[in-house]
Structures are given as C-alpha cells and as structure tokens.
Design brief:
alpha/beta; Rossmann fold; 5-stranded parallel beta sheet; two-stranded antiparallel sheet; 6 helices; binds adenosine-5'-diphosphate
C-alpha cells in the first residue's frame, strides 16, 4: 500500500478497506441496520455475512434472511454493502472477500465477554483480521432478534424495532395464525 500526499488529501490508496459484519440476522433488526449503516460510512465496502447457524434453529431460512437484508439495503440505498451467507470460519469469509476487518455491535458487557473471546479466536486463526467494536445506539441497546421474535409470538407490537417488511414477515411466521404460544 502506498500514499501520495496532495493538497492535504491522501490519494492513491492501493486497496479498498472492506469489513465483514457477521451475524445470524434471524431476522435483521433496526439495531443491526444502525451498526451496518454507521460502518458503511467508515469502510469502503461492507460484506454482511449471514451465518447459516443451523444449531441456533433459525426461524427464517438462510435465503430468507439474505433476502430481507438485501431488501433493506436497497431501500436504504446503501450501495457499498453486499450480503453473503456462510458456513465456514469467519476468517475464511474475510479472506474470500479481501476484508481485513470484522465489525461487531456491542449492546452491553454481556455482549463484550462473548465477542471479546470470539475476536481472540479469530486472531488466533488469522492475525491479519482485526475486530472493531461499535457501541449500539442508545435507542437500540435492548434490541435483539430473539426479543422481537418473542414479542411477536405473544402478539405484541414491534413497530420501530424492525423495518416494516421484516415486521410483516415475522407476523406471517409467528403472529396470528401461526402463534406458537396459542
Ligand atoms: P442477535 O444477538 O440479535 O441474535 P446476531 O447474532 O445476528 O444478533 O448479531 C450480529 C451482531 O449484531 C452481533 O455483533 C451483535 O452484537 C450485533 N447486534 C445485535 N443486535 C444489536 C443492536 N440492537 N445494536 C447493536 N448491535 C447489535
């Protein structure tokens, strides 16, 4: 990598700085989107990596989760964000896309303990991949995919917590007619 310093602006960076935003996204929430939008302003490109995670028994298929994310980014006009699914080590995804950074959102200390361990594991697997933590926006610190699923399954309101099209899909899957707690 080299830089030419012209008129106070660095020009000629030889490579784009790409970051991976990994998660299960079952489904994507406004908390995820907030982190991704903020990261997309800092990095040249973001790869939102959807973990297949069958052991977590997601209610949406991998294809559905990818599709919902793609719809959101189209609507938000985030052109430097792409979505991919994976079923391998995260460092392999980073290598595949030429990304040197992993961005994770932190809601609380409980997130930190788990994410800190994961970042150390990833460093052990590939020391060139760095993990960056971004703190959740205050309005989303309580928000989780599992939380919205639980609220919808009991018929509660999740307006403002997920995009409207995701809300509809959740209601179709878990709400009236398919309420698993009925
Ligand atoms: P969840 O924990 O909601 O099941 P994921 O496994 O999909 O979500 O999480 C992917 C990443 O998004 C993790 O780094 C997680 O800490 C982050 N994240 C999840 N919800 C939020 C939120 N409300 N605000 C900020 N980051 C979040």
């Amino acid at each position: 990598m080299y830089f030419l310093f012209r008129g106070g602006v660095f020009q000629g960076m030889s490579e784009d700085l790409k970051a991976i935003c990994p998660g299960t996204f079952d489904p994507v929430t406004n908390g995820h989107l907030d982190i991704i939008e903020r990261a997309a302003k800092i990095f040249d490109g973001i790869i939102v990596a959807v973990a297949e995670n069958p052991e977590k028994k997601p209610i949406f298929s991998t294809e559905e989760r990818v599709e919902m994310l793609e719809e959101c980014f189209k609507e938000l006009k985030l052109e430097n964000v792409e979505v991919a699914s994976f079923d391998t080590l995260l460092v392999n995804v980073a290598r595949k896309y030429g990304a040197r950074a992993v961005v994770k959102g932190l809601r609380a200390m409980s997130d930190f303990e788990y994410e800190f361990q994961m970042s150390q594991f990833n460093r052990e697997m590939d020391e060139n991949v760095e993990t960056f933590f971004m703190t959740a926006s205050p309005e989303y610190t309580f928000l989780s995919s599992s939380g919205v699923k639980e609220v919808v399954s009991y018929g509660g309101c999740i307006e403002g917590l997920v995009p409207p099209r995701v809300e509809k899909r959740l209601k179709d899957k878990l709400g009236k007619g398919g309420n698993k707690h009925e």
